[in-house]
# Entry
Amino acid sequence: MTEYVLHEDPASGNCYKIRLVAAHLGIPLQRRRYDIRRGETRTPAFLAEVDAGGRIPVLQIGARFLPESNAACAYLASGSALIPSDRFDHADMLRWLFWEQYSHEPNIATLRFWRRYLGEASLAPAQTALIPGKQAAGEAALALMARHLETRDWLAAGTLTLADLVLYAYTHLAGEGGFDLAAYPAVERWLARVAAMPGHIRFDD
Ligand SMILES: N[C@@H](CCC(=O)N[C@@H](CS)C(=O)NCC(=O)O)C(=O)O
# Structure
């Protein structure tokens, strides 16, 4: 049987995505921990052996290494009901994964990291200057999800898919980034639906 090792920092929502998908599918994962604030993914050994990009998560599949959280989720979920077989639904699910990486995670996850883990006082001036733009873009992402979910239970395909699990990760932590989820009740209702599904695990499980 293939052995999976998740190279992760437990504080990362990108790493939680992979644990969440694996839990839904009953796939056991070994976990190897790094502290990104101490530069543990930037050591010569990590860069040579795990990922030349120096970031987590990385899913190790036997002797091979797969970086990028959404790619790792897609690998684990391949062939499962989390990936729609209908051609349009499949592509629609993928668009949420791509959207998450371009319009959601760079704003909501980055502000969470800066505010919750680094503290605004310790940011470089160039980072502080980016905060208003990231706040506005994060609010826009949550508003778009809310509009979509006003009339639907799930993001794509009318059922729970990888899109819901991937977006759940940083959306449910958005409060730690300075976003008020109470302003987006349709998103809150969807978060509760995802968390009630069999196989769900919490961020700190
Ligand atoms: N697009 C990547 C983002 C990976 C990423 O930004 N990882 C962060 C933690 S969530 C990291 O490793 N930061 C440490 C560093 O860059 O040194 C993914 O989805 O996996």
